[in-house]
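Appendix B. One record, verbatim.
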Amino acid sequence: MLRFILLANLLLSSVIGATSTARQDTTVVVTTGTEVWAPAPPKLPPGAQIAVVFGDRSKPGELYAFRAKLPDGYSVPPHTHPMDEHVTVLQGTMLVGFGETRDETGMRELPAGSYITLPSTVPHYNRMRGETILQFHGIGPYDIVYVDPADDPSR
């Protein structure tokens, strides 16, 4: 019996050690000011910059996080996403509205520190007040589908 308990403890320690090592290998720390900014993909209107925090937003099933730096007045026309969108406002203010047509009077103000989940296929649009930094996270692939295909700047 004692041998069984010792063997079980040894196996459990090995599993816990392996799990701890795996977690350490995937730890990601990004502090404000250390991001590497690059122009956003052409599916977004010009002027946006992005910084990858971790993951690859284009890969199906992969967890990702990225930041977007958007100038004052930046706006994205009505659009949807094929996946749920999770957004945290890190700096500035994002105004968000819902529906297939823009209505500036009905937009909700989300100041720094705010978080919003936008379920897949729910049409929405936004505008930034002040230079705004947003952090997006979710499970890929990330995409944006404009309600009016003519609004897609990548076309």
